[in-house]
Write a structure and sequence with these properties.
Shape: globular
Helix content: 25-40%
Radius of gyration: 22 Å
Number of strands: 19
Strand order of the largest sheet: 1-2-10-9-8-5-6-7
Length: about 450
């Protein structure tokens, strides 16, 4: 966990970015980046299993493979994203909460939100419109319906529950965002993530960003645009895009230079261009992906890998491996994604897999790229809610970020070293068959 504190600047009209100056331990700004990094039991195979290289395997990699039984212990750590979420919800300073995610199923977070509603906190939230069988649809909205029934003890309306997506040109409503006291004129808190309000707070492999800033900053105000856009214009891609464009124009503050926000639909092309331009300039990249099919990213990576001195690493969920090699229908991943990765691997991509628990739909759900440059140029990270797919840059609701804040980039680099060295597995070390391990042991 890191904390980056930034100085509030009053002179925005003079063209100075609110993020242009930084002051450690400022009382005004705080950037708290957290990775789930779950603490999990060791899960042993019930019988002898060998790797692709013929080595004997006894267990899944510790803390890579997790189950729901590990959630409570992981959540209780003070450095966990869920601990921070509950801290914000339970704060007596919290008077209003807005959140939007693809899905919402976390019982501990739901209970905290219910208690907040009972003490009078105004809550507005949206999730993706449920699809599937009637039973599947009912299961997907179960937590939301429960929260909707939580009423203030003194009387009055309960939380406002909205569904978005699958209409008006939108596919998935895939934003991932929490805003605390969005109407504040002073302190403004928001969390954005790669994760949903599910196991994504604890036992999935995710990144969460908790930002406290001033309500007058561009960063704060563009997220107010997202919130109001989702509430008032979220049933049409064109209406939402127009509103975001007009809302951005009305922001008086200068846009920050070291954290750029891209909202999809409407700004997917700019987000994609940011990836492509930075990839072309980078001397190396480290990538963590859940889905991987974005053609522009694959094309530029292919060309860069042909250049001397360029290197690239990528960590994918092992779901994509099993989908591609065995044709197993265990995840949203597709065999074509595996083929995309293998083509790049033949050109020089270093590729590893996170062995996660697809029997419980536990995921390596990070989506980020670290751009490393030669010389004095500041390295960057591209991350956010969306996967590296065409839909995520065109027809989904998504929130993306291009970050050049040094402390944040350094923390991503440290995390990547941990994932690559301690959690991820090379193909030759994967099990030769997809065998479910037994109950875990400490």
């Amino acid at each position: 966990m890191i904390k980056l504190c930034l100085l509030v600047l009053v002179g925005l009209s003079q063209g100075m970015s609110a993020w242009g100056a930084r002051l450690q331990d400022s009382e005004f700004f705080d950037y708290d980046l957290r990775f789930t990094n779950p603490s999990c039991r060791t899960y042993y195979y019930p019988r002898g299993v060998t790797s692709n290289s013929g080595e004997s395997l006894r267990a899944k990699p510790k803390n890579a493979f997790c189950s729901s039984s590990d959630a409570s212990r992981s959540a209780a750590r003070k450095g966990s994203p869920e601990y921070k979420i509950l801290e914000w919800i339970n704060s007596p300073e919290t008077k209003e909460i807005f959140f939007t995610f693809l899905s919402f199923s976390n019982g501990r977070v739901a209970e905290a939100l219910c208690q907040a509603a009972k003490r009078g906190v105004k809550i507005t939230f949206s999730i993706d419109t449920p699809v599937g069988t009637p039973e599947e649809q009912e299961r997907k909205v179960a937590r939301a319906k429960e929260l909707e029934q939580c009423r203030p003890r003194g009387g009055g309306p309960g939380p406002t529950f909205l569904t978005r997506g699958h209409e008006g040109g939108i596919l998935w409503s895939h934003n991932k965002l929490i805003i605390i006291n969005p109407g504040s004129k002073a302190k403004y808190q928001l969390a954005y993530a790669s994760a949903n309000l599910s196991s994504g707070t604890v036992t999935h492999h995710e990144n969460w960003h908790f930002v406290t800033t001033h309500a007058s900053t561009y960063f704060a105000q563009v997220h107010k645009c997202l919130m109001n856009g989702m509430i008032d214009y979220g049933r049409s891609d064109s209406a939402y895009s127009r509103y975001i464009q007009n809302c951005r124009r009305a922001i008086a503050a200068d846009e920050e230079s070291d954290i750029k926000v891209f909202l999809v639909p409407g700004e997917g092309e700019q987000a994609e261009e940011a990836i492509v331009d930075n990839l072309k300039a980078a001397r190396s990249v480290d990538m963590a992906t859940h889905r991987f099919s974005l053609s522009s990213l694959r094309r530029v990576l292919r060309d860069k890998l042909a250049q001397s001195g360029f290197s690239a690493r990528l960590i994918a969920d092992d779901d994509v491996y099993w989908e591609g090699t065995n044709g197993e229908d265990i995840s949203p991943n597709t065999p074509s994604e595996f083929r995309n990765l293998k083509r790049l691997e033949r050109r020089g991509l270093d590729l590893k897999y996170m062995e996660t628990n697809h029997w419980e739909r536990q995921l390596h759900h990070n989506k980020f790229i670290i751009f490393d440059y030669a010389g004095d140029r500041q390295d960057k990270v591209f991350t956010g809610a969306g996967n590296f797919t065409g839909n995520a840059f065109s027809v989904n609701y998504e929130n993306y970020y291009l970050i050049s804040i040094p402390q944040v980039v350094d923390q991503f680099k440290k995390q990547y070293r941990y994932m690559w060295d301690r959690l991820a597995t090379a193909e030759q070390d994967l099990p030769s068959e997809n065998v479910e391990p037994g109950r875990g042991s400490r």
